[in-house]
């Protein structure tokens, strides 16, 4: 009897100890996913940034952006040098690192919650359903937008800045590009802190972009995992396909968000719907798709590299963590 009581007590103690241990492991796994996502985003952004510059310029310069992507690149290089293609790169790298860290942390946290709920409900598979993937993406995306919107306002301002050399006399020295900190301080001084949240409404609507992207990715990945192990190469192509679909559908909102980001202090403070109507009235529906070529190309390549890098970095992070844990034993 005493032995039985001891066994019960031991089991109770083990279960009490395993709960915190499981929670710590889950937290560690969430952080590993977040760090891998941040690193993957940083690497993929650095590789494709000139395409972001071309797309952003086309989105905010309206009818001036009617030239081809190659002609636009030549124009920027001629008036600003090659560095013009990388305007705002420092804020973009910081922004994508924070954005992806926040997004992946919340996505994995929500995903783990749904998986636990599936196990408690006795579902045969703990894999997320399409609806659960969309909900996880919506929660993670909304949290990310609210936290990182100020970073992207600054980045868009820097990326879309028009060189003063356009109006300068021939031979006149070019104005030095403002720094990230300089752009932030100027915006706060001239327009107030509220402008850091310009375009937040279309940005929240654009949460559907990663929802579509990750839902397509997760479902295709789950389907492939039934047949074999998913490799970083598989993740590259699945990520590209998901992003292609998501960006093509949501591009008009990306244009509206960029226009709202660069609206100056003396310009009209328009709502999302008003901006939509103005673009359509002044430029036609094609105005909503300015720069879609380089943007889709950049988004697809970035997403493909992101998923490939993320899977590789996550595997490396987990391996390193296990080695450190083994040395402590």
Automatic annotation (TrEMBL):
Q: Where is the composition biased (Low complexity)?
A: 15-24
Q: Which domain of life is it from?
A: Eukaryota
Q: Where are the Solcar repeats?
A: 28-113, 128-223, 230-316
The family database entries (PANTHER family) matched by this protein are listed as: PEROXISOMAL MEMBRANE PROTEIN PMP34 (PTHR45939:SF5), PEROXISOMAL MEMBRANE PROTEIN PMP34-RELATED (PTHR45939)
Q: Which GO terms describe its molecular function?
A: ADP transmembrane transporter activity; AMP transmembrane transporter activity; ATP transmembrane transporter activity; coenzyme A transmembrane transporter activity; FAD transmembrane transporter activity; FMN transmembrane transporter activity; NAD transmembrane transporter activity
Which organism is this entry from?
A: Pseudopithomyces chartarum
Question: Localized where?
Answer: Peroxisome membrane
Q: What is this protein called?
A: Peroxisomal membrane protein
Provide the family line. Belongs to the mitochondrial carrier (TC 2.A.29) family.
Query: What are the protein's UniProt keywords?
Result: Membrane, Mitochondrion, Mitochondrion inner membrane, Peroxisome, Repeat, Transmembrane, Transmembrane helix, Transport
Give membrane topology per the record: Multi-pass membrane protein
- Span list, region Disordered: 1-24
A Pfam family found in this protein is Mito_carr
Q: Which PROSITE patterns match?
A: SOLCAR (PS50920)
Q: Which residues cross the membrane?
A: 83-106, 134-154, 235-254
Which InterPro entries does the entry link to?
MCP_dom_sf, MCP_transmembrane, Mito/Peroxisomal_Carrier
Which is one Gene Ontology cellular component term of this protein?
peroxisomal membrane
């Amino acid at each position: 009897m005493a032995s039985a009581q001891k066994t019960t007590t031991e089991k109770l103690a083990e279960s009490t100890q395993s709960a915190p241990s499981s929670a710590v492991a889950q937290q560690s796994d969430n952080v590993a996913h977040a760090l891998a996502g941040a690193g993957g985003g940083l690497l993929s952004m650095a590789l494709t940034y000139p395409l972001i510059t071309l797309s952003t310029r086309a989105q905010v310069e309206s009818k001036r952006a009617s030239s081809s992507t190659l002609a636009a690149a030549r124009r920027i290089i001629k008036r600003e040098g090659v560095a013009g293609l990388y305007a705002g790169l420092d804020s973009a790298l910081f922004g994508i690192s924070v954005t992806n860290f926040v997004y992946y942390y919340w996505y994995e946290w929500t995903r783990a919650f749904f998986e636990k709920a599936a196990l408690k409900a006795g579902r045969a598979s703990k894999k997320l359903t399409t609806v659960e993937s969309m909900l996880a993406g919506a929660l993670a995306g909304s949290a990310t937008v609210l936290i990182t919107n100020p970073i992207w306002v600054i980045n868009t301002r820097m990326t879309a800045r028009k060189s003063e050399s356009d109006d300068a006399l021939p031979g006149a020295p070019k104005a030095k590009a403002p720094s990230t900190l300089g752009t932030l301080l100027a915006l706060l001084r001239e327009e107030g802190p509220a402008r850091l949240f310009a375009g937040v409404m279309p940005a929240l609507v654009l949460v559907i972009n990663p929802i579509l992207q990750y839902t397509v990715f997760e479902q295709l990945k789950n389907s492939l995992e039934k047949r074999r192990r998913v490799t970083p190469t598989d993740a590259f192509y699945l990520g590209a396909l998901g992003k292609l679909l998501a960006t093509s559908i949501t591009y008009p909102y990306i244009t509206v968000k960029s226009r709202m980001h660069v609206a100056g202090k003396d310009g009209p403070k328009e709502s999302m719907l008003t901006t939509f109507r103005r673009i359509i009235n002044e430029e036609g529906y094609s105005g909503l798709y300015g720069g879609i070529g380089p943007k889709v190309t950049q988004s697809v390549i970035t997403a493909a590299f992101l998923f490939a890098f993320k899977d590789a970095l996550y595997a490396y992070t987990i391996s390193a963590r296990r080695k450190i844990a083994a040395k402590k034993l």
